[in-house]
Amino acid sequence: MDIVDTQVHANLLGTEPTLAIMDALGIQGLLYDECAEATEDGALHPGYRLANRAFRNVGPNAEAAALRYPERFAFLMRVDPLDPGIECWIDTLSAAPGFKALRTLVINPAQGALFESGGHDRLLEAARPHNIPIFVTCPNRVSHLAQYAARFPDIQFVIDHCGAAFDAPPGEATIDDAMAMARYPNVAYKWAHAPSFLSNTPYPFPDLDHKLRRAVDAFGPERVMWASDYTASRRRANWGESLFAIRHCPLLSAEEKTWILGRTARSLLKWHPFESTLSINS
User: Fold this and answer.
1) DSSP character at residue 77
2) Fewer C-beta within 10 Å: the chain N or C terminus?
């Protein structure tokens, strides 16, 4: 099986240790999202403040990994919709080897107000000519993604982290708003952090099976992708547990697992697979 993990902050592990774990688990590809701890002003580095106080992320480790191991690593870049040079920045990113997507985070009240009022239009207009998918992290505001999905039907959106609220009690977050977004054909769903947000049971997290089944029934397996986000979620589920909870899910067919664990990411990110030489290949 061609397995692709669509979010790991691999800079927190190092490239070589990350590859070693990938090889052990049979993971062929990894979408690298470079970030570290937040600073006092809320910035998620690496990056720098611009004159208008927008924050421009950079990904030196992610880019280096994609250049050195193009068959194993690709990367996305976080973007601030208030970046005054966002058009030129996205033009530059689109030419970078291994660049596959953008990610925008709607976490704090100011970001939420901007998102709800249509303030991401400029970002989307800049991404549109390059046909770049946009990962959107918008807990408690997933329903507001509808306006963008309707206005930008040619942009591929991906709902991050199951569309779950970060502030819900463990295991009690709902996916109702995210499921409602399945009516837009240009919206996909990322199954990440499910053990943290949606489960109250230990591995193999049996209370997730029906929720994942619901997501696949709503979006179709062709619009559901898996991410471990291992470096952020490992206190709840290690990398192998995140993967094998899906591989062993009794409510999914083998074909559906193939889509969720790799084929969806390959298709939506336009990231062609390579001929695996790993010993774990099924």
Assistant:
1) E
2) C
For the chain, how many residues are written? 282
Do the beta carbons of residue 229 and residue 188 sit within 8 Å? no
Q: Which residues contact 79 (CB under 8 A, 6 or more apart)?
A: 56, 57, 86, 89, 90, 102, 103, 104, 123
- Closest alpha carbon to 130 in 270, 274, 33: 270
∠ CA(108), CA(35), CA(79), 5° rounding?
A: 60
Question: What is the reported pLDDT for 275?
Answer: 52
Residue 190 makes CB contacts below 8 A (sequence gap 6+) with 6, 7, 135, 158, 159, 160, 161, 162, 224, 225, 226, 227
pLDDT band per the 50, 70, 90 thresholds, residue 42: confident
Digit-coded pLDDT (tens) for 185-195: 999 999 999 99
CB contact set of 221 (below 8 Å; sequence gap of 6+): 255, 256, 259, 260, 264
**Reported pTM:** 0.94
Q: How far apart are CA 137 and CA 160, in angstroms?
A: 5
Query: In terms of DSSP bridges, do strands 55-57 and 47-49 run parallel, antiparallel, or are they unpaired?
Result: antiparallel
Ordered alpha helix ranges (H), 30-175? 60-68, 86-94, 109-116, 121-127, 145-151
Determine what percent of the chain is predicted with pLDDT higher than 90: 90
What is the sign, positive or negative, of the torsion defined by CA atoms of 59, 35, 161, 230?
positive
pLDDT (tens digit per residue) in 121-171: 999 999 999 999 999 999 999 999 999 999 999 999 999 999 999 999 988
Is residue 120 within 8 Å of 81, Cβ to Cβ? Answer: yes
Nearest to 150 by CA among 175, 186, 114: 186
Q: What is the mean pLDDT of residues 32-43?
A: 81
**What integer is the mean pLDDT of 218-240?**
96
| 273's tokens | 């697979």
